[in-house]
Design a protein that fits this description.
single chain; 252 residues; alpha/beta; 11 helices; binds phosphoenolpyruvate; gluconeogenesis; EC 5.3.1.1; triose-phosphate isomerase activity; Triosephosphate isomerase
Length: 252
Amino acid sequence: KMPRKFIVGGNWKCNGDRPSINALVQALNTGESAIGSGVEVVVAPPMLYGDYARGLLRPDFGVAFQNCWTGGNGAFTGEVSANMIKDAGFDWVILGHSERRSLPEIMETDATVATKTAYALKAGLKVILCIGETLDARQSGKTDEVNARQLAAVAEKVSDWSNIVIAYEPVWAIGTGVVATPEQAQETHAQIRKWLAENLSPQVAQQMRIMYGGSANAANADSLAKQPDVDGFLVGGASLKPEFLKIAESWK
Ligand code: PEP
């Protein structure tokens, strides 16, 4: 893993209010947690609270947004552009989360995720690009095919991958309490890296950080973090608890 700095993201999803964010940030800011300098930590508050959380949060933690519009400013009621996120002082956006891909009210396509990724990079943001297969796809042996399809859509629109971090999040593991085994995570991460080597370049593959997401918690993080191709975590449920700091320490 040598050239790749461990990265842990906390996806707060559509949760929280000012009092709960105050309490969570206070816990994350605690001086007692020796997460150390070997990890980059990024938290993703709900859009409306991004600025609020940034103002309270320890400066060594980055802040990400959970989505953005496909392009720049304009007549797109209800949307937030990558340019605005950048202008407001934020560096990261999460794109392609499986909830945004699969909830019937949203249904983002591979092509939409790719367009957003290309535009966000152009606007100067770094992107946590989420990919992953459903339970059906895994059970029918299509895991690598699904990941390849989601990555290929992005490769059609993006040539410089240096500001992308991939989050491999098997849909069957998200919010279910069913975590991928270290072997499953390692095998799939290695396949993703192989795809990058064959379709982009060996250098992109070598440098790409691939986070694991899906029911990661303080109890299972260490054994996953030991896998050679697991370069961090994207954490949902457990990122709303002080336990998140333990996951951030799992690089050690
Ligand atoms: C996520 O939604 O990115 C996620 C990994 O959720 P959880 O940790 O709750 O499974």
